[in-house]
Amino acid sequence: MADRFEAERPRLRSVAYRMLGSLAEAEDAVQEAWLRADRADRAEIENLSAWLTTIVARVCLNLLRSRTTRREDPLDTLDAGVAGPEEEALLADEVGVALLVVLDTLSPAERVAFVLHDTFSVPFDEIAPLLDRSPAAVRQLASRARRRVKGATPLPSPDLTRRHRMVEAFLSATRGGDLQALLALLAPDVVLHADAAVIPTPHPVTLSGARSVAESAMAAMSRARLTGPALIDGTPALVMSVHGRLSLVLTFTFTRDGSAITGIQVVAERAELAGMEIAVLPA
Questions:
Q1: Tens of pLDDT, residue by residue, the chain (283 residues)
Q2: Exposed e or buried b for every residue in 162-171, given b needs 16+ CB within 10 A?
Q3: Distance CA 168, CA 174 (A)
Q4: How far apart are CA 81 and CA 79, in angstroms?
Q5: What CA–CA distance (Å, rounded) separates 138 from 152?
Q6: Which residues form the RNA polymerase sigma factor 70 region 4 type domain (predicted)?
Q7: Looking at domain 2-69+99-150, what is its CATH homologous superfamily?
Q8: Fewer CB atoms inside 10 Å of the end CB: C or N, the chain?
Q9: DSSP 12-43
C-alpha cells in the first residue's frame, strides 16, 4: 500500500492543490488521505486510484467547508507570502494563477465538481455521492463553475491577442529583471497609479515616465513570481495570488495601435478587488 500510495502521491497532490490553492494545505490533505488509506480494509478497494482521489477530495471538501470566513492575509506579511518556496510559485504558474483565483470564488461544492470533472475527468456519477447530490445536480455545479472560469465575453480576437501579448511580455520582463525589455513596452509618458493598500502607504501612489514605472516594477520582482495573466472584466490583465487568494491586480491601457502601455492601475484594496470579474484567458 505504501508503494502504491507513493506512486499516486503527485496526482493526489495536484488534485488537492487545485481544491485548496495552498501547497502546504494540499500536502496536509494528502497526508490525511494516507492515514485513512493505511487503516482501510484493502480487500474492499476495487480501484485504488479512484478510491484515493475520492478520499483526498473528501478531505479537501471538509477543509473548504470549514473556511467559514475568507482567509485574510495581513498586508504587512504579503511579501513574506510571495517569498515562499519556489515549488509553490512553480506550481501556481503550472496550474494558472488566474484559475486559482477564480476557483477561490466558487462554493466548496462547485470547486470540487469542477476540479474533479473538468481537470481530472472523474464522472459525475462518481462525484455525486461525495457531494450528496444527484449526478444531474453535480453537472449543474460544474457548469456554473465553468461559466465563472470563462467569464464575460472578452474583447474581439485581434485586440485580445495583441493586449494579451503585451501583458505577458510585461510579466516576463518583470520576472526576469530585464529593465530594457520593460522600457521597450512602455510609452515615454506612461503613468502608474497604485492604491494605498499596494505598498502600503497612507496615500495612493502615482508614478510618471517610463523609467520610473519600469524601476518600480523591478522593485516588485518578487511579487511577479506568483502573478499570472487573466481577464479582468473581459480585458487582459495580471493577477497575483498568495496561497490561492487574490491579492493584487494590474490593469493596463494601451496606445491606439496597441504597441505600447500608456497606463497601469495597481489595485490591492479588497473592496475594489471584490467588484472585479476575473476569468481565465482563452487558450
A1: 788 889 999 999 999 999 999 999 999 999 998 888 888 777 677 788 888 999 999 999 999 999 754 455 444 444 444 445 688 888 898 999 999 999 999 999 999 999 999 999 999 999 999 999 999 999 999 999 999 998 866 666 778 889 999 999 999 999 999 999 999 999 999 999 999 999 877 889 999 999 999 999 998 888 888 899 999 988 899 999 988 899 999 999 999 888 999 999 999 999 999 999 999 988 6
A2: bbbebbebbb
A3: 10
A4: 5
A5: 23
A6: 98-148
A7: PhyR, sigma-like (SL) domain (1.20.140.160)
A8: C
A9: HHHHHHHHHS-HHHHHHHHHHHHHHHHHS-GG
Q: Could you tell me the residue ranges of all domains in the chain?
A: 2-69+99-150, 157-279
What CATH fold (topology level) applies to the domain 157-279?
Nuclear Transport Factor 2; Chain: A, (3.10.450)
> What residue type is assigned to position 126 of the chain?
E
pLDDT at 1: 79
All three cell numbers of 87, joined, read 515549488
Listed residue (249, 226, 247) closest to 236, CA to CA: 249
CA distance 238 to 277: 13
pTM of the complete model = 0.87
Amino acid at site 272: E
Phi, psi of 190 (to 5 degrees): -60, 145
Q: Identity (one letter) of the amino acid at 155?
A: L
Closest CA to 197 of 76, 98, 106: 76
Orientation angle between helical segments 23-39 and 48-66, nearest 10 degrees: 130
